[in-house]
Design goal:
By secondary structure, the protein is α/β, with parallel strands linked by helices. The chain is built from five helices and nine strands, in the order E-E-E-H-H-E-H-E-H-E-E-E-E-H. It has a five-stranded mixed beta sheet. The chain has a two-stranded antiparallel sheet with strand order 1-2. A two-stranded antiparallel sheet has the order 6-7.
Length: about 160
């Protein structure tokens, strides 16, 4: 798999989401899409990130962007996560990691000397034409949603 770069076409996706819906990149043509990948529902960093994006959801919408969080969790887990924390962004379920693989974020990780496969926290800003406008890899949660919003606004 070649590493995605800004300017490349965004890989297509069609994923089940919270609320028993589906989201596909093709259905979002003409809009900017913030696609953020996170490891797991209801863990400290992932919760902070989802809360930060949710707090700014209306600002993203005013700037013409849809925010979608993607993890390997199931839609049912996403529903519980959203209800527990009052989240307002879409959460998509990539249970087979096909989308994570297409975006190059399903990687080998290591914790306490144990190696395992998981999501590398990353965000992709996709333009209305389907091209990757900006890529953030190995994201640190603090201030990230605000930085992404600034990038969205800079496109307007």
């Amino acid at each position: 798999m070649t590493k995605l770069e800004e300017g490349n076409p965004a890989p297509d996706f069609d994923l089940p989401t919270d609320g028993d819906r589906r989201l596909a990149l093709a259905d979002l043509a003409g809009k900017m899409v913030v696609l953020y990948f996170y490891p797991k529902d209801d863990t400290p960093g992932c919760t902070k990130e989802a809360i930060a994006f949710s707090a700014l959801r209306e600002e993203f919408e005013k700037a013409g962007a849809v925010v979608i969080g993607v993890s390997p969790d199931t839609p049912a887990k996403h529903d519980k996560f959203k209800a527990k924390h009052g989240l307002s962004v879409h959460l998509a379920a990539d249970t087979d990691q096909a989308t994570a693989n297409a975006y190059g974020v399903w990687v080998e990780k290591s914790m306490y000397g144990r190696k395992y496969m998981g999501i590398e926290r990353s965000t992709f800003l996709i333009g209305p034409d389907g091209a990757l406008l900006k890529i953030w890899r190995k994201v640190k949660v603090a201030g990230h949603a605000e930085a992404v919003l600034d990038a969205v606004r800079a496109q307007g």
